[in-house]
Structures are given as C-alpha cells and as structure tokens.
Please model this.
Amino acid sequence: MKYTGNLLERWTRALQEFLTAPQGSETSPASLRQLDDLVLYHYRGCPFCARVERVLGELGIRIEMRNILSDKSHEAELIRGGGKRQVPCLRIRRENQDDEWLYESTAIIRYLRSHLD
Ligand SMILES: N[C@@H](CCC(=O)N[C@@H](CS)C(=O)NCC(=O)O)C(=O)O
Model:
C-alpha cells in the first residue's frame, strides 16, 4: 500500500511539473508554426512521405496534409495540378502566381530546410 502511495505521489508530481513547465522549447506544441501556403499530398504507409513528415516535425512546422487514399478529391487534385499520382508532393501556393507542385522527398526536404529553417 505504501508502495502504491509513493508511486501515486511521484506520478502526481511528474504531472504537475509537466503542466507547469515553461512553454516555448523547440519541441513543444506551442512552438509549432502553422504555414498556410503549403500543402502536403501523402498517404499513410508511404516511407518517402514519412521522411518528409519527420522533417516537418523536426522543424516544428505544421502544414495541411491531404491524404490521397482517404479522399479521392485530393488524389484528383494532385493529378490535375501536379501532373502525376505520386506522393509525397508539396504544393506551394504563391500570391498572384500558379501553385508550384514539388515532387521527390529529397527536393521537398531541401526546400523545407532551406526556406523555413
Ligand atoms: N523518389 C520518390 C519516390 C516516391 C514514391 O515512390 N512514392 C510512392 C508511394 S511510397 C508513390 O507515390 N507511388 C505511386 C502510387 O502509389 O500510385 C520520392 O523520394 O519521393
């Protein structure tokens, strides 16, 4: 019983520390930047998409994700706009210009790192 009490105490303390910890570190959700001009076409289980998603997480960037398997309109959009059914594809929206459709995980990661880091 004493053991259970200690454990409960430790959990409570850990929870309190977590809830009252200062915000703003690199990995805290509060530091995530939402970028509205970017959209990532992807699907779950695609390893190249996972690489891009990992870098987004690393950079603390949140963007709109469009899964082409769970929504056929996203798939149609990708083929119409980008020219082929391949994920990942990063859609870059620019004011007064056509959208850019960037394929290839390495090119997407290079873009994210060089423009947003
Ligand atoms: N070299 C590409 C490979 C991308 C790739 O092969 N993607 C697969 C999914 S993992 C794909 O879109 N295949 C076409 C399809 O599913 O219709 C990259 O690095 O992004």
Q: What stands out?
A: The CA atoms of residues 51 and 86 lie 15 Å apart.
